[in-house]
Design brief:
The structure is a single chain. The protein is α/β, with parallel strands linked by helices. The protein has 2 domains: 34 residues; 142 residues, Glutaredoxin (3-Layer(aba) Sandwich). The protein contains 8 helices and 9 strands. The strands form 3 sheets. Strands 5-4-3-8-9 form a 5-stranded mixed β-sheet. β1 and β2 form a beta hairpin. The protein is globular, with a radius of gyration of 18 Å. The protein starts with a helix and ends with a helix.
């Protein structure tokens, strides 16, 4: 019996090392500037959003929606909206990135009252450039701080009905002292 466990443990250990190396490689590629958010995007209302200017003026956070049908993602927007006074006090602003289509994103913006630019990434080109493609039609739910030059700063990956990451967002930007 111990002889059988050793190979399983070795496989598990090898798998763990691969994950750690992949995460480290991803972090290094972000630090080296390989992963960048576009300098300019067009929102669902056909407004051109100068991401570079926003990063110089405010703390820009991109909130991704997995898909338009993701109710947890929509709840995230409602949660963030309820915390806007404290987040705005520490100069946080948002752009929402989702697969689209634009009409459904407009409906989500109305329903959630989250009145920030929504960008329809229907071909997942932006998500792909950030290594955030979850499925052929889905984006990894997350929040990303965009720094000048489109570099990724703080990030929070994942979301579910019990975990949204908005507390980490407040803490990172130290919004608790700003109010």
């Amino acid at each position: 019996m111990p002889a059988r466990r050793a190979p399983r443990f070795s496989v598990f250990l090898g798998f763990l090392v691969c994950i750690l190396v992949a995460e480290e490689t991803g972090a290094q590629s972000q630090e080296n500037g390989a992963v960048r958010f576009p300098a300019v995007v067009t929102d669902i209302d056909q407004n051109v959003i100068d991401i570079e200017a926003l990063t110089r003026e405010r703390n820009l956070v991109v909130v991704t929606l997995k898909a338009t049908w993701c109710l947890v993602c929509q709840r995230q927007l409602v949660r963030l909206r309820s915390r806007l006074p404290e987040l705005e006090a520490c100069a946080v602003t948002f752009v929402v990135l989702a697969p689209g289509p634009a009409e459904e994103l407009a409906a989500i913006r109305r329903r959630t009252g989250f009145d920030f630019p929504f960008v329809a990434d229907e071909g997942l080109e932006i998500a792909r450039s950030l290594d955030l493609v979850l499925t052929d039609e889905g984006i990894v739910p997350c929040m990303l701080q965009i720094l000048p030059g489109g570099r990724i700063g703080w990030r929070q990956l994942g979301r579910n009905g019990a975990y949204f990451g908005d507390d980490e967002l407040r803490e990172y930007f130290d919004c608790t002292r700003a109010v």
